[in-house]
Amidinotransferase
Amino acid sequence: MNLLQAPQSVVMIRPHAFCSNPETQGDNAFQTPTPKDVSHKARDEFDAAVSTLRGHGVDVNVFEDFGTRHTPDSVFPNNWFSTHAGGHVALYPMFAKNRQRERRSDVIDMLKRDFRVSDVIDYSGLEHDGLALEGTGAMVLDHIGRIAFVAKSNRADPVVLERFCTHFNYEPIAFDAHDAAGQAIYHTNVLMGIGTDFALVGLDLIPDADRRQTVVDRLEETGREVIALTPWQIDNFAGNAIELTGNSRILALSSRALDALRPEQIDVIERSARPVPLTIPTLESAGGSVRCMIAGIHLTRRPERNAA
């Protein structure tokens, strides 16, 4: 089975002090206020999601965040690091000050211990210059076609994007994307998700017809079927999905997202992947969904050493 686009191992961060992040509410239109104490609900949703993914054969590496560093968005680790075939890891500069504290060495240490890591390229120092590129939130990566699709925003600085694409050999395709109120889409991964044989894309949110067609053409060049999502479906996180490999290929997405999809769209997905819904309404109040919660491990696992 081709694992290039759909990793079998992932990292997830278990939240103990979850809340809607006050530092990101200004540019994240998907975010809604949360009551003061919802952390237990968030944790229960997280645990159920992990159990479901493991039940489908996905290797989930869970790390705890006990809230001591005041990191309300830590449940979304895909923004601060990414991994790539060939043993490469990237660390990213984050826009919000409290999100900059989400980076943690124990995750990288685990990757080095259990997987083959040849280098770690650290862009996080660019935060001191006011630059941000929030990982696979800001970029939706086509690992097969080597393309980084990017909705322009304050979370995706073009200077850092160019550096990433040069180091990791991706072609950048950047475009404007706005919601119905004209606000820029804060992260590309709420707009689109790329699987091995299909792609979910909110085409109506890309106002420039030429750029919109470029996105479609480049996805179709690799043989993918493009599933066009409506703005309403995007609002319900239908684009914030990730294809994974477990016992078979699956598409992890929220229950809300799956409910928003039309039967004919689900039919396209089911030709190559099984939709696996995760019920996470509390976690979605922070403005992200299933894709944001999962950092894929696109690395080769080290062989297990025999005990002495």
Notes: The first strand starts at residue 9 and ends at 15.
